[in-house]
Amino acid sequence: MTSAPVLLEMRSITKTFPGVTALSDVNLEVRQGEIHAICGENGAGKSTLMKVLSGVHPHGTYTGDIVYQGEQVRFSDIRASEQAGIVIIHQELALVPGMSITENIFLGNEPRGRFGIDWKAAQRRALELMEQVGLQEDPDTLVKDIGVGKQQLVEIAKAFAKDVKLLILDEPTAALNEADSRHLLDLLRGIRGRGVTSIIISHKLNEIEAVADTITILRDGRTIESLDVKADGVNEDRIVRGMVGRELHSRFPEHTPKIGEVFFEVRDWTVRHPISADRLVCKGSSFTVRRGEIVGFAGLMGAGRTELAMSLFGRSYGVYLSGQIFKDGEEVRLRTVSDAIAHGLAYVSEDRKAIGLNLLDDIKTSMVAAKLSKVAHHGVIDPVREYRYAEEYRQSLRVKTPNVDEGVTKLSGGNQQKVVLAKWMFTDPDLLILDEPTRGIDVGAKYEIYGIIQRLADQGKGVIVISSELPELIGLCDRIYTVFEGTVTGEVSRAEADPELLMKQMTSTKKTPIR
Amino acid sequence: MRKYLTRSVALIGAVALLTLSACFSEREGAPAAGASGSAAPAKGFAADALIGVALPSKTSENWVLAGDLFTNGLKEAGFTSDVQYAGASTTVADQQAQISAMVTKGAKVIVIGATDAAQLTTQVKQAKEAGAVVIAYDRLITNTPDVDYYIAFDNFKVGQLQGQALLDGMKAKKPEGPWTVELFSGSPDDNNSGVFFNGAMDVLKPAIDSGDVVVGSGQTDIKQTAIQGWKAENAQSRMDSLLTSTYNGDKKLDGVLSPNDTLARAIITSVKGAGKDIPVVTGQDSEVESVKSIMAGEQYSTINKDTRKLVAETIGMVKSLQAGTEPTINDKDSYDNGQKVVPAYLLPPVIVTKDNAAESYANDPKLAPLTQG
Amino acid sequence: MSRIKDLQKNLFGGTTSNARQFGMIFTLVAIVLLFQIWTDGLTLTSGNLIAVVSQYSYILILAIGMLMVIVAGHIDLSVGSVAAFTGIVVAKAMQEFSLPWPVGILLGLAVGALIGAWQGFWVAYVGVPAFIVTLAGMLLFRGGNQYIGNADTVPVSEGFRTIGAGFLPEVGPDTGYNNLTLLLGLAACAGVIWRELKSRQTRREMNADVAPMWISVLRMAVMVGVIVFATLRFAGGRVGTSLPISGIILIVLVLAYSHYTRNTIGGRHIYAVGGNSRAAELSGVKLRRVNFLVMMNMSVLAALAGMIFVARSSASGPQDGLSWELDAIAAVFIGGAAVSGGLGTISGSIVGGLVMALLNNGLQLEGVGSDMVQIIKGLVLLLAVAFDVYNKSQGRFSIIGSLMRPFRRDDPPPPTDRPSPASDAGKAPVAG
User: Fold this and answer.
1) CATH number of B155-304+352-371
2) What is the pLDDT at residue A112?
3) C16: which residues sit within 8 A by CB, 6+ positions away?
4) Mean pLDDT of chain A
5) Which CATH fold topology does B50-147+307-347 show?
């Protein structure tokens, strides 16, 4: 493999966002015709690197050089990179659901005939391309009528239609089932045989191990190492070591839990999907939380953790079917968010920009938004009290801002997350549900957030942490529940928590390895 | 705090005094005399005074022509003129604001072609209090004691002429009755619609009662015959439905009473579309297309209300007011606007058919050529 | 530059957002002065100012409600029709049943509330977009107006006309001015001074920087100067005139709604819903109730505006309320509200409405035809918002945005390319 010529070289790429350095001095070397995997934790800079490569972050917004096919290139936008044969397929597919497969394949790239689009030629070419990617469908089928796996293939066919030389796949199998994933990986091997180079970003290390020729590992915005899979005898553990790079424990503040009695309990919680009546998103889930305890919820994407949390929080998601909530020994009915807040629940959502914050607000307005009555007399807000509370939280949570009149969009992700935490701490909750509390924020801020979570627990509150990062759960939580397909499938104490055991319970049935 | 407070109050006091001394008050000793009732100005006013003319929106040829005639005529007479049209979609509110602006600018006479005759009370009162004379042009302003004169064509007479023309036309085609007719009237929000209709019915009613004239559909109430907004499309769709409901088959329609030319042409279009013989259709306004239609033998009649004459008479009225003399009026009793009987000057309308078209339009540069040959 | 900024900051308040709100007011002053010169001083005469206030008070009242609707992320196209419908119902009811006029006004407000409840129900509880609901309402209530009024013009009684064409009575000694207007002016001055001192105290309590006293005094002097000027103008018109009753109604509404939107929980919920409805819902805001109340409130204000117009016109007619919605919406957007909701202030919308009103008035005084006036107003709307958008995209001082959130809200930063630095967050676990 090493004998193949270098197709792409990215040298000393540095990219900063206000307040955060996303990439610092990153190097990447991709050889002609290989499958190159890029691994790293959340926030390691993988996607940013690909955005730099594909022109989403145009030349001039980063420093460093990109050499492609032996020439230095400066892409001003995605079109420019696509013209050079670099096509990126994002996790969220860029397909138009109401259009046919043919139309999607040639969207923005329609073959011209004498009278507008030459649909006959398009049809012919589409069939060829579909055959190449192993998609057996009528090309007139609407994209919304085929499964996610096949949609992924349409995306790849679309890339082929643009004469792709370097195909970048961002988490291609995240939403796919077993069989579709295997098909996709086979396809990747197939196109390697035809000389197309691909870069794959994935969290599924078993897949990477199975398919990749070379692996580049990023951590905290830096290149850690490049591994040749065959020569270096790489296995999953080796990759993890590179990705994590240090002892897990140093990532978490010292903490001695002070755990009290059970005060919150959920029994047989069952909720159906808001639209499809026959789909249950929570099936008879039961769990307990003790005072002063940090309880983790582990599960794969789509396992129903967020749905569980939101349906508990004033039935904000889905349609409640059955189940009970007990707080301090008594059953409570939380029909609305205000009920939930009144009973001391707080839910910090996983997507703070979309549903956690009003991005038009300033810091102090955001912090008091969930319990305005606390700063008001007879419905009239007292600006002095509002300001004082906000100041208090700014100082105690160390939000990096000159003053609390600033807009929340001016803050970095970590500081925004602190504002959201403050917003919910302000409601004086007994139980905080934190959904992906450290998503998209950098390592330093994570450490601070962990500290805040531990302090909240020490005040006697119960804290539920939902996270996709197993190391985070293992490092932070006193107890971890695993969730699979809407059901709580297991409970693991801090002492016995290890990734493999959790993973087994998170998948419930034993998975067949992908080879 | 207290020290600052006193200081600031002192400062504010100083500002207040300064502004006060600038002598702001526009109050005169007593309220303007003659807040209501008789208008006759004792002394007249300056020969180059501002004359305001507020007209409805530019939706018909006549208003545009009137505006141009006012602008030129007032200028020739030595006055300063301010001619305004209401906006197309915000008619009433626009006209109210325009009249207010004319009052502010000190207009001595304000000529108003009202968009809605009953909604100008406040502005007319304001004008009156500022000492301006208000002339209602073409449409009587109602609901106020503050309008001084009314000048218009005799609209009741227009209706009578239309009714008579309808009868004459039908007799000419088919000497013996009974004749079958349909009735149309103007927009229900226009004061004049009822006047036209009543005038026509004044002539037609006896014939209907005697059975000589039969309204085929039986729709004789003004609420049934009204055409919202004077719109051609509404007239056409009403005629279409009448033809379908009443005149399918061989049933013949002899005549249609149409209050104006736009509606008349719409009615003719509808009848033609249904493949029927064109009945006798009346009209009003002498619009170019209708004059052509009359010459072609389709529309039967129209009314010549010469805008030139009406504007000229209005300007004459303004001149008398300027000179301090009482303007000529020829009807002191008929026009009660609900609050007072408004002295009026009425011009006689003229009925025009193919026979007298050339003669009637001899002085009209636009229409005269159409009537030749 | 920085020195100018410092001065701005000191003059107009502690924060930059306070300094910005003066941009639009500056535009307004510029328009006034321009026309004052152009019309040889007619613009600022008592008679004209009184006429302007009574002519546009109903549009400004609509703008108050429209601001709240737009902030909540909706739109209301039906206001003109609702106003016309209410007008004809009230006029007809008073005519047919000889209702006393105060009962007529109550009836009108009740009709407005009913219509509002109807529209609010569809928007908030059924979830039909407000654009559609109010487009339907526009047709519905316009038709209703013609159905009930037979497209006739129905006159109203003298007493009823007070709310649209009435003035304060002349009482007390002959001062050469309308005494009650003078008293109102005095009260306004006292209010301005009290508010300035109160806000200084508040800032001190917050331990925030308090501007030097001379700044406060200067600011108070400017505002008091304006109030004194306005008071004398309004009090010094022809005998029998004063600040119009409709103007007083407007001022009361502006004060009340400004307070509500800025300082109360309910007001904040409107901004929260408009800014991010899902986030608001998850913070315990009762989304449906907020939407319902905002739509309902709009119709009540539209009913009031309709009655004021009818009172001023002394009759309810079939053309009432035509394209009022456009004037109200234009005022709100010129006043700095965001199309997507969540941004905007009452005071901004009022200034936006006044810009339109004075533009209209000035052009009419100049004898510019209504066709040109419409063209100019259209261009002003477009340019005002475009200029603002451009400035924001350049990250510079935003004149229109100046009014967005005078006292509590800051503009969002320009929509620059600033994604989350670690957007590759996946849901799958790191280690398998």
Assistant:
1) 3.40.50.2300
2) 77
3) C5, C9
4) 85
5) Rossmann fold (3.40.50)
